[in-house]
Specification:
eight-stranded mixed beta sheet; Antithrombin, Chain I, domain 2; seven-stranded antiparallel beta sheet; alpha+beta
């Protein structure tokens, strides 16, 4: 029997997972767009499942960052991705995984053993993200795109809709693979304000494709205290390659009510909050090594360490020098995730019988694409993931700490109440 594969794609962030399999007779099919709207989940405050999902997402963030940093292809320059986007798309995929396939995915993504906890956690997290303040834009969306002749289990479709707000749309991958690709990419563009384009490359969807799972997350916010553009000057930046380049360096002095600051013998930490109208619900946390050693710092960090760093922040006056940059990344993740511990999902031995009751599906590719633009006003960031299954400044005042980001640093965009890492990256060469 011919077996097909699942690719995963992502970006602002978007991710798509593609699965392929043997075709089956015509069937009633999953709910069609507009036919059965997915119910909107409601958030339960102080939810233990929410904490479990946030912890899993943050642990995966550090694991993937270190894997990408060590990768001969992806680890050479800048790194930027949304752990939330990738984890969410894989959680929907995991709902259909069984036996060894499920065990490996659960281990890599640190999902709780109890699927009910995972589902409840995502119900709360998705509602929390989409229910943020009007002062900034933060939204996330999931979708399933199913070959109309392939039979999927109603329980799987309803689980995706009920717990992940993932509406299912019938597609004709067999006769219109290119048209289907353009439709899915158009959805991604709509969800990310056109920042993520061509997530799924030509030829990635073909007649053997059975299912595509997509996630997108988009954020646009302004700083609580914006940088004055008239103070931005070209300055030296020691790139990760060891060469010195000129970059536009922003500057400002933050008073004690604005930024959190901490320092150790090996690095400085700065938290720059985004304006939410009545508080600071999201912030960028930057870790700046004393020397050009982001790899060494990253290996010493984990989810627990990050929590301790946040607790140690003191709100004090800080002189900030920070580069403007725009970054766009695209990762094809099967090799990376296989090396991290989930190889079976990409082979003929995969078990995704929880999706369709058979053993014909496996992941063909995982693609994640992400974008970030940081300037004097604030930050715009987006990402998407798809899973395809186939078948010169003035001297600072005395005693005021100086945070001068003129060499590589690590940064996070976090939701402050839950602590969830929505985006994570490394700037080695601002562009």
């Amino acid at each position: 029997m011919h077996r097909t594969a699942i690719p995963l794609l992502g970006a602002l962030s978007v991710l798509a997972i593609l699965l392929a399999g043997c075709t089956a007779p015509a069937w009633p099919g999953p709910s069609i767009a507009g036919e059965t709207p997915a119910p909107r989940p409601t958030i339960t405050q102080s939810s233990p499942p929410l904490g479990a999902v946030v912890d899993a997402n943050n642990r995966f963030a550090f694991d993937l960052f270190n894997s990408l940093a060590d990768d001969p292809e992806y680890g050479k320059g800048n790194i930027f991705f949304s752990p939330y986007s990738i984890s969410t798309a894989l959680a929907i995929t995991y709902e259909g995984a069984r036996e060894e396939t499920a065990d490996e995915i659960r281990s890599v993504f640190h999902f709780p053993d109890n699927r009910a906890i995972l589902r409840s956690g995502y119900v709360n997290l998705i509602a929390h993200i989409n229910g943020q303040a009007d002062a900034f834009t933060l939204r996330t969306a999931n979708a399933l795109w199913a070959e109309k002749t392939h039979t999927f289990l109603p329980d799987y479709i309803s689980t995706a809709e009920r717990n992940y707000v993932a509406k299912t749309t019938n597609m004709d991958f067999i006769h219109q693979p290119e048209g289907s690709r353009l439709t899915i990419n158009s959805w991604v563009e709509d969800q990310t304000e056109d920042r993520i384009k061509d997530l799924i490359p030509p030829g990635e969807i073909n007649p053997s494709t059975a299912l595509v799972i997509t996630n997108a997350i988009y954020f646009k916010g302004t700083w609580v205290k914006q940088f004055d553009p008239s103070l931005t000057r070209d300055a030296d930046f020691m790139a990760g390659s060891g060469t010195t380049i000129r970059v536009p360096m922003m500057q400002r002095t933050d008073d004690a009510a604005i930024s959190g600051y901490a320092e150790t013998d090996t690095f400085q930490v700065l938290e720059m909050p985004y304006d939410s109208g009545d508080g600071a619900e999201l912030s960028m946390l930057v870790i700046l090594p004393g020397e050009n050693d982001t790899a060494g710092i990253a290996q010493s960090l984990d989810s627990g360490t990050l929590q301790e760093i946040r607790k140690s922040l003191a709100y004090k006056t800080v002189r900030v020098y920070f580069p403007k940059f725009t970054m766009e990344t695209k990762y094809f993740l099967p090799r990376t995730l296989s090396a991290m511990g989930m190889p079976t999902a990409f082979t003929a031995g995969a078990d995704f019988s929880g999706m369709d009751g058979g053993r014909d599906l496996f992941i063909t590719n995982i693609i994640h694409q992400a974008f970030v633009d940081l300037n004097e006003e604030g930050t715009e960031a987006a990402a998407a993931t798809a899973v395809i299954m186939g078948k010169g400044a003035a001297p600072p005042e005395d005693n005021v700490p100086v945070f001068r980001a003129d060499h590589p640093f690590i940064f996070f965009i976090q939701e402050r109440e839950t602590g969830s890492i929505l985006f994570m990256g490394r700037v080695s060469e601002p562009v």
